[in-house]
């Protein structure tokens, strides 16, 4: 697992271009807001880790439901889309006690997801 020491999602959300994303997050229920924050952290961390990836979407439940325990989310069956392809992903995300910011994150990028599995896994095709 890759364990970054610096969390990135707060900086992304502080950017003026993220105004709509900040507004949208406020409308979500607590668990959904935490999942979306972790998805954002995942995209930022993958992009920072390997410049060849340009993540644009994360599905935390592609092959297994994510597990939320308090303020920790474990997504062992996640996937992310980058450059018109889907890749398997595993991550663990720790949020602050209020669930409003990411304080710990670790991840592992896996193999590309076979194109013929996208529909079955609910991964939208890129047009």
Short summary:
With 127 residues, this protein is α+β, with helices and mostly antiparallel strands. It contains 4 helices and 5 strands; from the N terminus they run H-H-H-E-E-E-E-E-H. Strands 1, 2, 3, 4 and 5 form a 5-stranded antiparallel β-sheet that branches.
General description of the model:
- It is a single chain.
- The chain is α+β, with helices and mostly antiparallel strands and 127 residues long.
- The protein has one domain (9-121).
- Helices cover 31% and strands 32% of the residues.
- It contains four helices and five strands, in the order H-H-H-E-E-E-E-E-H.
- Strands 1, 2, 3, 4 and 5 form a five-stranded antiparallel β-sheet that branches.
- A hairpin with a 2-residue loop joins strand 2 and strand 3 (72-82).
- The chain is globular, with a radius of gyration of 14 Å.
Blueprint (SSEs and pairs):
Elements: H1 9-14, H2 19-27, H3 30-49, E1 55-59, E2 67-69, E3 72-82, E4 85-95, E5 102-112, H4 118-121
The run of helices and strands is HHHEEEEEH
What is the alpha-carbon Rg in Å?
14 Å
Q: What is the approximate shape?
A: globular
Q: Pick out the low-confidence regions.
A: none
Ends apart, CA distance between termini: 32 Å
Largest sheet: 5 strands, antiparallel
Strand content: 25-35%
Helix amount: 25-40%
Number of domains: 1
Q: What's the total number of strands? A: 5
User: Which whole number gives the mean pLDDT?
Assistant: 94
């Amino acid at each position: 697992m890759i364990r970054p020491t610096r969390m990135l999602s707060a900086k992304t959300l502080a950017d003026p271009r993220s105004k709509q994303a900040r507004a949208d997050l406020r409308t979500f229920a607590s668990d959904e807001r935490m999942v979306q924050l972790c998805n954002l952290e995942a995209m930022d961390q993958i992009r920072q880790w390997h410049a060849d990836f340009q993540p644009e979407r994360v599905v935390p439940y592609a092959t297994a439901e994510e597990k939320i325990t308090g303020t920790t989310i474990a997504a062992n069956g996640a996937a992310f889309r980058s450059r018109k392809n889907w890749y398997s992903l595993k991550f663990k995300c720790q949020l602050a006690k209020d669930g409003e910011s990411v304080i710990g994150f670790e991840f592992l990028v896996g193999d590309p997801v076979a194109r013929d599995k996208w529909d079955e896994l609910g991964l939208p095709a890129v047009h």
